[in-house]
Specification:
2 domains; 476 residues; 7-stranded parallel beta sheet; 36% helix; 16 helices; TIM Barrel; alpha/beta; single chain; Urease, subunit C, domain 1; 9-stranded mixed beta sheet
């Protein structure tokens, strides 16, 4: 009797919480909600839990009060009588992806635009329930987008904001329509670097991204000031090498091989070489130089983001995703297709560099390094869709699906400091989950067949979210 009363009390409390949660969502958000019940049981699912452990078949996941209440073999897990039971035979459940280089800003050769409406919806629809924005073209816009999502007025992922890019040198040519001058905050002294960090930390940034032309002196100031505020720093580097940045205390390195000038034959301190990729296509990825980089990173716990979807596109190797054609505005699609056609002149070199980049990341994982997934959208590589392609490419590169899910979820959660609350399908964690029709473990392309994305235990309709941005990507 006592046990029954506890169960009834739990269901009652959960029911109240669910009602309050539903009431807090705006009508706009409720339009894309497909599952909102006090208790939900996902039965007969295949689970890849994000821990790197074995795939579990015929599982039941019970969600209550926005959290994972139980995970186990169907029939062995007790399903509360009041639960909404979904028979998901033939489906797979992942933890929500954590995108660690997932911009709201998007660019083609002729435009740089902040996709405040379409990017959050596409990330979310694609199973990315948490993102780190990694440099903003419109920092205040991203602050407001995050507020709208957090308050239930707009659908989207949890957002960790990075503020503007911080770099050194001088602004790029204002006459070039494809430049990123408006993205950058150029700093020329340590005092200025510290002031920028303090300003954006006060405004809500939780992570900072330094860019290619920053010097060691200013980078050291950014890192020191961010760490004093309890915040972290990532780098898309060039003027500073990976090993130099690790020695200064950086927390995360972006883009892998092509952003690392450790191996450049003519590297000058604090200068980004104009031929930054020199020697990379022929680099021995088992060499002592590469191993030294990895040892330094692992000794300091510094992770690396993988952006293979963007690299594949740059090498003109990416298959055409028909969802991209439908999502982009007609003008943006024309620009993206034209840019792809122009790649042909350097395609052979780009393809070799892409292969090297993939191998570099596989060597990093093999050595024990902490790799994370990302999208880095531009051109035909769209928010969220790029994250899904990242999953496919990492499996194709030779990692197991369980390893890749861990890279795409738990590893990012660890670096963001939220692994205790999300990133794996584990009892007690927030119910941020992806439901996929099919088996991405045997057919990686099934990652595109997401039906429901759960965040805080509420299930959202992936197809409706994608439909809501049709023809708008590149515009808003």
């Amino acid at each position: 009797m006592r046990a029954l009363m506890v169960v009834l009390a739990t269901v009652t409390l959960v029911g109240r919480a669910s009602a309050q949660r539903a009431a807090s969502l705006s009508p706009t958000v409720r339009e894309v909600v497909s599952v909102d019940a006090p208790v939900v049981a996902l039965t007969h699912v295949r689970v890849i839990d994000g821990t790197g452990g074995p795939i579990a078949n015929d599982q039941t996941v019970v969600i209550a009060n926005g959290r994972i209440q139980a995970v186990g073999r169907t029939g062995a897990v007790q399903v509360p009588g009041a639960a909404r039971v979904l028979d998901l035979s033939g489906h797979t459940v992942f933890p929500g992806f954590v995108g660690m280089h997932d911009h709201i800003v998007y660019e083609t050769t002729n435009r740089i635009v902040s996709l405040g409406f379409s990017a959050p919806r596409l990330y979310f629809a694609s199973g990315v329930t948490t993102i780190k924005t990694t440099g903003a073209a419109d920092p205040y816009g991203e602050i407001n987008i995050k507020r709208e999502i957090d308050q239930g007025r707009s659908p989207g992922p949890r957002m960790h904001l990075a503020g503007p890019h911080i770099t050194g040198g001088r602004p790029w040519d204002l006459g070039n329509p494809g430049n990123r001058v408006l993205w950058m905050r150029h700093v020329s002294t340590p005092e200025e670097a510290r002031r920028v960090v303090d300003y954006w930390a006060d405004e809500g940034a939780t992570f900072f991204k330094v860019y290619t032309d920053i010097s060691r002196r200013e980078l050291a100031a950014v890192i020191d000031q961010a760490h004093k505020r309890g915040l972290k720093v990532s780098g898309h580097l060039c003027s500073v090498t990976f090993r130099e940045a690790v020695a200064l205390g950086i927390d995360l390195l972006e883009h892998g091989l092509t952003a690392n000038t450790d191996y450049h034959p003519r590297k000058v301190p604090d200068v980004c070489p104009p031929d930054r990729a020199a020697g990379l296509a022929e680099l021995d990825l088992t060499s002592e130089a590469v191993k030294a980089t990895f040892r330094d990173m692992m000794a300091k716990g510094v992770g690396m983001t993988s952006n293979l979807a963007g690299a594949e596109l740059a090498a003109n190797l990416a298959p055409m995703d028909e969802r991209v054609v439908v999502a982009l505005s007609p003008e943006t699609l024309a620009e993206a297709l034209a840019a792809r056609a122009n790649i042909a002149a350097t395609q052979a070199e780009a393809r070799q560099l892409f292969k090297q980049r993939v191998r570099y990341e596989m060597e990093f994982v093999k050595a024990g390094g902490l790799l994370m997934g990302a999208s880095d959208p531009n051109g035909l590589n769209l928010p969220g869709f790029g994250d899904q392609r990242e999953f496919e490419l990492l499996v194709q590169a030779g990692l197991t699906p369980a390893q890749v899910v861990q890279i795409m979820s738990a590893n990012g959660a660890k670096v963001l400091g939220v692994l205790d609350s999300l990133g794996t399908v584990t009892q007690g964690k927030l119910a941020d989950l992806i439901v996929i029709q099919g088996d991405p473990a045997t057919n990686p392309a099934d990652i595109k067949r997401i039906t429901i994305v759960f965040k805080d235990g509420v299930g959202y309709d992936s197809a409706k979210l994608i439909a809501s941005v049709r023809g708008l990507v590149g515009v808003r």
